[in-house]
Amino acid sequence: GEDVEQSLFLSVREGDSSVINCTYTDSSSTYLYWYKQEPGAGLQLLTYIFSNMDMKQDQRLTVLLNKKDKHLSLRIADTQTGDSAIYFCAEGTGGFKTIFGAGTRLFVKA
Amino acid sequence: DTAVSQTPKYLVTQMGNDKSIKCEQNLGHDTMYWYKQDSKKFLKIMFSYNNKELIINETVPNRFSPKSPDKAHLNLHINSLELGDSAVYFCASSPSGGAQETQYFGPGTRLLVL
Question: Pick from A44, A92, A102: which is nearest to B100 by CB?
Answer without folding.
Answer: A92
